[in-house]
Backbone:
């Protein structure tokens, strides 16, 4: 009897251990079989990869085992280099990550980085990006007297920056590549080497191909909010922008949406255009705000 009792005890211990072990094994197998797609983060103006530690932590706490890469290029003052140069540099760093991810990757692209990512997605025909999360990025352009502007161009205000930005010299500075002065629309359309081309606001022989490439994404998530303080107007983070009276025209009334020039209307019709607005978040806090992560990002990173 004693022997059989010890056998039962041993069985109980084993089943208890198994009870602990199997859920752990199950979780590991789930991560291995289903897994989370790698996440690639592209920073913004004057940032560096070290600024995204909180966002990396949020991702790894909610989706353990996710491979998160913050691309360490064009940091700090180097982020002022021309946008097409940054697109090519980031593309070269990101492409091997894509090639090693059979099930695809996700993009989180912050501020100016959101426009860099659009350039990559438009020009890379074999990208495998599933969710493109644009985190408070001036997608429709920038036109505002911000601290950034005063720091960069102390002798200018928003109303006269076009004198510099819409020149060949100005177009060598990243912010001028997406400076969108609503009072000098023709100058913007004819001078912008970057945003006006991405938006097909001036004739672009690549526009059909770029649209096809961009529409390979599975979700476009546009995050922004009224207390941003840098992106001006803040609705630019969701493709809204000023008319020539500086009245904001929302995305759905914008020509680039109505004509579906690069696929916004198509994405909306597919149910793949997500707009997430969060009040009370300053521009430099978007990537460190856990509420923003849970509300606007977490579910699109699977």
Residues:
């Amino acid at each position: 009897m004693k022997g059989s009792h010890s056998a039962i005890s041993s069985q109980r211990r084993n089943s208890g251990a198994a009870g602990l072990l199997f859920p752990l094994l199950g979780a590991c197998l789930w991560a291995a079989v289903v897994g989370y797609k790698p996440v690639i983060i592209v920073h913004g103006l004057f940032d560096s990869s070290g600024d995204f530690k909180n966002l990396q932590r949020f991702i790894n706490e909610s989706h353990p085992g996710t491979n998160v890469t913050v691309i360490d290029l064009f940091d700090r003052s180097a982020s002022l280099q021309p946008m097409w140069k940054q697109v090519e540099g980031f593309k070269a760093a990101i492409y091997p990550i894509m090639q090693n991810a059979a099930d695809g990757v996700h993009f989180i692209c912050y501020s100016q980085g959101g426009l860099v990512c659009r350039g990559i997605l438009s020009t890379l025909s074999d990208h495998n990006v599933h969710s493109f999360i644009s985190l408070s990025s001036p997608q429709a352009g920038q036109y505002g007297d911000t601290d950034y502007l005063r720091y960069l161009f102390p002798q200018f205000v928003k109303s006269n920056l076009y004198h510099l930005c819409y020149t060949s010299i100005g177009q060598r500075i990243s912010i001028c590549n997406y400076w969108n002065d609503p009072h000098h629309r023709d100058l913007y359309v004819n001078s912008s080497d970057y945003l006006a081309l991405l938006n097909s606001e001036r004739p672009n022989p690549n526009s059909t191909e770029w649209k096809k490439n961009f529409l390979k994404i599975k979700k476009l998530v546009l995050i922004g909010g009224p207390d941003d303080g840098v992106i001006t107007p803040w609705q630019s983070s969701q493709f809204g922008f000023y008319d020539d009276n500086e009245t904001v025209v929302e995305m759905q009334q914008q020509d680039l949406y109505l004509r579906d020039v690069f696929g916004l209307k198509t994405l909306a019709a597919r149910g793949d255009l997500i707009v997430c607005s969060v009040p009370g978040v300053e521009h430099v806090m978007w990537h460190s705000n856990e509420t923003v992560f849970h509300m606007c990002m977490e579910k699109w990173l699977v």
Q: What stands out?
A: The chain has a mean pLDDT of 91. DSSP finds 13 helices and eight strands in the chain.
